[in-house]
Amino acid sequence: MFKYVFISGKLVIESKAKIPVRDRGFLYGDGLFETLRSYGGYIFMLDAHLERLFFSLKVLKYNLPFDKEYIKDALRKTIDKNNLGKRDAYIKIIVTRGIHSGELHFGGGYKPNLVIIADSLTHYPEVDYTEGINITTSSIRRPAMGSPLYCHKLLNYFENIFAKNEAHYNRSQEAVFLTRDHLVLEGATSNIFFVKGNIVYTPPLTQNILPGITREVVIKICRENGIKVKQKKVHYCDIINADEIFKTSSIAGIVPVKKIDRFVVARKVPGNITSKLMKLYRDKIEYSKLDSISL
Questions:
Q1: Structure confidence at residue 108 (pLDDT)
Q2: Considering 18, 26, 203, 241, which has the largest number of Cβ atoms within 10 A of its Cβ?
Q3: Taking a C-beta distance cutoff of 8 angstroms, is the pair 251, 35 a contact?
Q4: Cα separation of 56 and 35, whole Å?
Q5: What does this protein need as cofactor (predicted)?
């Protein structure tokens, strides 16, 4: 059975899909993306993903020939064409600035290119959720604050790929970025939380991190359920002495951590608060299906 992608306004067999060699996404990584997950045909937090995407498109001065409704319609068509309407799916929305005009600045009347990829979801191993994962700090040291770029999901993803490769060779499932002062920022593909004394902590958005969609859902769940949550600067010493650690992402959801570098987090993984949040997160998905788009 053929797989189809949405590109240049139409559905195309994936093996026949083409991107011009002068597309700025290909040449320079000049593009944005969103990674989404559908649960049995429902895209969770779709509107939030599109809000983030269009915020970035506006800030980074993309000329938009399409709107959110156009993307929603393209998503429906792509999911349906790939027979994923009743299955869990991995979905990627990609927007490049378009064909390079010869100038590197944002001007030039570019026409962005929209690509949508959808495939059946390969679930994370169940043991990741029941026993936890290992995470490793990356050798890359980011500045703590001041960059206008880390809040956007840029197509230029090599820093994250490099960090994930480091984690792989350290037999870990995720890499974590620190600053030169050993402040914890975020994971290569996730946001980071920890628990100490029944309080949930996570780095603030004033630092160089992505405003993760699942991160925001977890903060909201905490507030709705009487779990104290604080957004504050987190030092490496804080996290290696935490009672619990977990990471969040749209594809994986909430995943407990059992070890960071050589430090074992806790005897019980997942911890009590992490376990509670994992259940509340699953409940949130079920409740929100009524407000999501059925494909």
A1: 72
A2: 203
A3: yes
A4: 14
A5: pyridoxal 5'-phosphate
Encoded tokens for 200? 């949930």
Q: Is 204 left (phi over 0), alpha (psi -120 to 50) or beta?
A: beta
The tokens for 14 are 């994936």
Residue 295's pLDDT is: 45
Identify the pLDDT of residue 288.
Answer: 83
Token pair recorded at residue 60: 């980074």
Judge whether 284 and 291 are in contact, CB under 8 Å.
no
Output the pLDDT for position 293.
Answer: 46
Domains annotated for the chain, with CATH where assigned, are 4-120 (3.30.470.10), 126-287 (3.20.10.10)
Kind plus residue range of the DSSP H or E element containing 56: helix 46-59
* Per-residue model confidence (pLDDT) at position 289: 81
Residue 97's nearest CA partner among 50, 160, 155, 46 is 155
Instruction: Tell me the mean pLDDT per 10 residues along the chain, length 295.
Output: 93 96 97 97 96 98 95 98 96 97 86 97 97 98 96 98 98 98 99 98 98 99 99 98 98 98 92 98 90 50
Q: Residue 228 is encoded by which pair of tokens? A: 């104290």
Contact, 207 vs 178, CB < 8 A?
Answer: no
Of 99, 103, 131, nearest in space to 20 by CA? 99
The residues, any chain, with a CB within 8 Å of residue 5's CB and separated by 6 or more, are: 11, 12, 14, 17, 78, 115, 116, 117, 118
d(CA 261, CA 166): 12
**Interatomic CA distance for residues 199 and 195, integer angstroms:** 5
d(CA 43, CA 47): 9
